[in-house]
Amino acid sequence: MKAVCLLSGGLDSATCLAWARQQGFEVYALSFDYGQRHRVELSAATRIAEALGAAAHRTAKIDLRVFGHSALTDDIDVPKGRDEAAMSADIPVTYVPARNTIFLSFALAWAEVLEADAIVIGVNALDYSGYPDCRPEFIEAFQTMANLATKTGVEGRTKVKIHTPLLKLSKADIVRLGAELNVPFGITHSCYDPDLTTGHPCGQCDSCILRARGFREAGVVDPTA
């Protein structure tokens, strides 16, 4: 069995890769250099793919800065120090327009070439920042489209299933699962606005706050803290 796993370099995607390996998949990790301000995550992705035994790891280069309109790809401040109510009030400026749709399309292309019947993505519908492309409705719709869009699908050689093992887990549950799967937390990177010189996380963006809360509630020490 082969699976393409989207690998950002963060806690969630690393846990997904470890989960896929546990399920018996030969895992092909796919990362994206899309003009994100936190490109340090790509170095983390490389380390994770090697540490967790990915069969291959590729980084696709696309420049979503041409569209901008996101704090991750444009000259917009990353929100800091927000509480949970503020995070969930609306879709935040860290949302990158259509990002998961674009990423899943690339993953689908590689899956077709590999004749893989699985794509793994670390979307989450509980402890997330309000992104519309993390919802189960989106994943279901994309999976339906995926099996209409490829030569291997039309010919009946593959039927792609999109696996979302973290979809209904809290951040603490994800940390617990990662610990059970021996995910090397110390080499993961979650921050949206790291120090450009050292790569150290800011500790105040939504992603840092959610990560810290997850480790705290799981009773696990975050080695990157």
List the helices and strands and how they pair.
Layout: E1 2-6, H1 11-22, E2 26-33, H2 40-51, E3 56-61, H3 84-87, H4 99-114, E4 118-120, H5 136-149, H6 151-154, E5 161-163, H7 171-180, H8 206-218
Parallel strand pairs: 1-2, 1-4, 2-3, 4-5
Helix pairs in contact: 1-7, 7-8
Protein described:
This protein is an alpha/beta fold and 225 residues long. The chain has one domain (2-218): Rossmann fold. It has eight helices and five strands. The protein has helices at 11-22, 40-51, 84-87, 99-114, 136-149, 151-154, 171-180, 206-218; strands at residues 2-6, 26-33, 56-61, 118-120, 161-163. Strands 3-2-1-4-5 form a five-stranded parallel sheet, with helices on both faces. Helix 1 links the parallel strand 1 (2-6) and strand 2. Helix 1 packs across helix 7 and helix 7 packs across helix 8. The longest helix is centred in the middle third of the chain and has 16 residues, at 99-114. The chain is globular and about 50 Å long.
Features of the shown structure:
8 helices, alpha/beta, globular, five-stranded parallel beta sheet, single chain, 225 residues
